[in-house]
Amino acid sequence: MNPELGAGIPSLPMILSLDRTLERYVGPVLNLYRNEQGEPYLDLWLDREAGRDQWLLFRVSENQLVRFEDRALTLRAVLASAPEGYGFVRRLNGGEIERVSVLSLAELPEPYIPTAKSYHEPEEGNAGERRQRVLLDGKWTFDGLRQLQMKYEQIYAFLGAFGVLGKNLEPGHFVVNPKLKLEPQLFAAGWNYKVAYDKLTTTLGPDSRVEMAAVQLASPGYIVFNVEPEIASAVRHLAAKIPTQRKALAKKYRAAHALVLELGRSLEVKAVPGQKRGWDLTREDSADLSGLKSSTRKAVKEFAGSLVCISYDYVEERTGSVYVAGELVLTTYRRLLELLSFANGDGPKGELVGIRNLKERDQED
Is residue 124 scored above 50 in pLDDT? Predict the structure, then answer.
């Protein structure tokens, strides 16, 4: 017989409606409900005996729910920090409620407590796998949100076009177009950078492109992007990796950036009447620039190698230019630093959900 948990009460003190099932094992084992105010409740299956099931219902915050669904928090951690500290146990017989009780979560017997590795395991094909959330705190302006969106989309576009997610994926795994063409005058001004990343976005198939799906400007709030899961994973991988070797990367970046700038100046074509200034990338092959080109390639390749997810050789092959490849690699790194910087400082704060969990898994491996 199921043990009677908690102190019995006549019925649940709130009206709930089922939002969706979060996890299944033969049948549902974790459901999401919401009350009339829209507040989320998790309903966790505890046990089954003689045809009777026990479920634990407890309220969670939107922040906890977001972090749990994106594997930044375990179910154990969510349960331990539930805002009300108590839950409701329902014993069901054939779907009919036999008993309802209120229970302090601190008194939940150990066998019913989720494990330390109880990260969310969505069903295969679950829409949650195709979402990336960015948690927000503080006061955000429209321009600040637009900048955050742009930086994420540009990093995503680069890694979608050129990213490598480990030994099982070939460089350019997500590239669709057989030949990527970028204009020679790419990096004369900020607008040219946008054009470059827009072109990278076109190399992705419609189902792989990132788009903003929702914004909630509460404190905390969040932005939700619809994503291709493996590309989003590459973004999180880089975002988690950079803080662990920031000094070494900064040194390599400065060396590579100085050479890319020098190469760019060497390729610049002076303006003639009626024409804008630009670059002649065909000059990269001239004898007087061969040494600079070789040094630039070596420095950028060494820098990209430290990021693991990026294959410099493939970027150069696809762009046909050491200069353009260098600009794209280094600019994407700057975008990553900018994306990470909004999580620090005294102003609005944010967190790319999934980084913490990824770090923990890396340490375990």
Answer: no
